[in-house]
Amino acid sequence: MNPASRRRAVEEVIEKLGVSERQACKTLGQNRNTRRYELKMPQKDQLLIEAIREQASKHKHRRYGYRRITEILCILGWIVNHKQCILVLMGATEDGKKELIAIAEGYRESTQSWRELLLDVKNHGLSQAPKLATGDGVLGFWAALEDVFPTTR
To answer: Are 136 and 114 in contact (CB under 8 A)?
Structure first.
């Protein structure tokens, strides 16, 4: 269950049972900070991030990687800084459906950028370390993963 689903579950318990936020979170084992968390997206990159999401969600681009999407955005007139990157953390449900876990601005996919993203996800509701991780070969991700979730393979 991802953090957004947990937030919805807490809201539903509060609404249907008429209990306090504290009691609903305690009953569901949900951290109250996670329930109150709001994603803070820098305004300057909001339009670019929306364009990336739009391209990634289009049916014909569904399997495109970041390089192909960057190329498409450049063709469409976007100015994309090659040192700046968007870190995307995806998960998979038991039935194999992909889910967006987190998206954040990074710098050259560095270890520090990935570490900040992984720690943020961990602090906002990822209670168990992932069992398995895959990546596109960026060393920063693997170093950060080893620091934050040492049991993940």
So the answer is: no
pTM score of the predicted model: 0.48
Which two three-digit tokens encode residue 64? 């495109």
Among residues 32, 124, 33, 132, the alpha carbon closest in space to that of 90 is found at 132
> Nearest 5°: CA angle at 49, between 68 and 132?
70
Beta bridge partners of 84: 107
Number of domains in the chain: 3
**Cα torsion 105, 129, 63, 141: sign:** positive
Question: Do 117 and 143 lie in a common domain?
Answer: yes
Which regions of the chain are under pLDDT 70?
1-2, 37-44, 59-64, 81-84, 137-138
Write out the residue range of the structural domain in which residue 70 sits: 40-80
Number of Cα atoms under 13 Å in the Cβ half of residue 67: 1
Amino acid at 59: H
| Residue 50 shares a structural domain with residue 61 | yes
CA distances from 133 to 57, 93, 96, 114 (A): 22, 14, 14, 13
